[in-house]
Predict the structure.
Amino acid sequence: MSQQIQQESSQYVEDFEQDSQQSERYVEQQTGKFEQQTGQFEQQTGQFEQQSSKSGSLKQACAAADDAAALRKAMKGAGTNEKVIIDIITHRTCAQRQEILKCYNREFNRDLIADLKDELGGHFEDVIVALMTCQSEFLANDLHKGIKNKKWCTVVEILCPRNTMEIKKIADSYVDLFEITVTDHLAGESQNELQDLLVLMARGLRGTSIDPDKAKQNAVHLYESPTSRVQQETKKSAPVKEAKKELNVVLLIQILTHDSYGQCQLTFKEFKNLHGQFIDDVVQNELSGDLEKALLCSIDCCRNIPNFFANRLRKAFEGAGTDDITLIRVIVSRFEHDLEEVAAAYERSYGKTLSRAVESETSGDYKRALLSLIEGFIEARAYQAQAQNRAK
């Protein structure tokens, strides 16, 4: 290996080590604790019934009833009090919003989402309705649009960062809404290696282990000559003229859809150390079109999820107009996962806070709702903690 490559490798290792603490911490929080987090947010009512006293459960029900009454009042009469709607809906967790929805529909014999659609409009309506919709249904809807319109990076964005349980919920909602499985729809709209990548991703096969030896072995086989690959597979050692190295796309797809995020990161590091190139650069040099874009998007996600979403937001802001669908989906779907980390990654990468970026790209109640989500993340967590303390 030349001195230049050694220097580049050393610099990469140094940069990787700086990022690894954040990545490892994130993987530990998001992979190791996904089931606890899902129970905490999406099955909060069930937790409260197990952990709370009877008086605590009644207090929780009263909070939902108070919110439902306030929302009804905000929409009655000649005008709509958008501020009340924003203050309530953007400062509650998914589970709390679903309790408000049930309470509203039961107490007033009305459909809360239908009322919100009647009273609101534009992208402000889109944000509020997205928040009031069950998370798996919301993502299943956007996933369907992504597949139908062949926006494969959107499909990767929805599936790649999520664990097996989350993907199963999205898949179940997908069948309920569209009477077709995600994998069948993907198989009908994509083909070849792209289809393999997306279908495997939709099956939720990602593991959780990290194996350094496996990372080194995969780094070798990801980029080697076809003759070396044939010799390895046939176990023949006869001398054959060495051909140019090629990217093993089949193995890369296997890694991106089956290996844990930590395992992917280790493999990418070993690849750079061994071949003197980033895996992204090799993909760009050897592939093109939809497969190239989908693989690059998947690599970006597996390398660092908060940075991945920060990049998705940046792309949503670029160009002549804002990609409001992506902007809303990212902020709403990451609200209870890692929005703080995404906002920090955005500021670190682009030298501007996410709030400032949203403020410059949006306006009116739409802007106020998104800013309330970004800035109210900690308040929502505090609200949940208070509810849990009252229930004890």
About this structure: Residues 30-35, 37-59 have pLDDT under 50 and may be disordered. The first helix runs from residue 3 to 30.
